[in-house]
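I am going through a labmate's work and have reached the protein record below. What it holds is a sequence and that sequence's fold in token form. Please read both lines and tell me whether the tokens look consistent with the sequence. Do not assume that whoever made the record got everything right. Thanks in advance; the entry in question is below.
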Amino acid sequence: MTGSLALALTVAVTGAPAPDAGEIPGGYYEFGEVREREPEEGDMNRLIGSILFPLGFLRAGGGIAMLLTASPERCKGNYGQGVADRTCSGLRTYGWVGVGYGGLMIVTGATFLGLGLAQRSRHRAWKRRNNIAIAPVLQRGGGGVSFALRF
């Protein structure tokens, strides 16, 4: 009560501060002026990247293990003396395919992860610029108006 009385007296004695040139009093937007849209949070890209990135290392590691076990000097010892040279050659090819596929998964996962982290950073900066939100809320238990202060 005393705070509002002191504020009223201060405004009455000194007068209200004049708005800056070109600024609408109260900080409202002009008709037709659009607020900056909320950027994506990047959750889905971070999720995809965090799955593909380690799986790419596993697949590339499996391909390297296949190359090592199917090398010409180890193939017959690892897979038995009755194995044909064509089989060892096919296993080496399969190993190279695994290394290539795993490498592509690593690059793709890192790209998605980087994109998601950049989107999250952009979204957090947007939230800092727009720190007060009043929005209608509709939930299972009812509805109403919600006031949120973000910091």
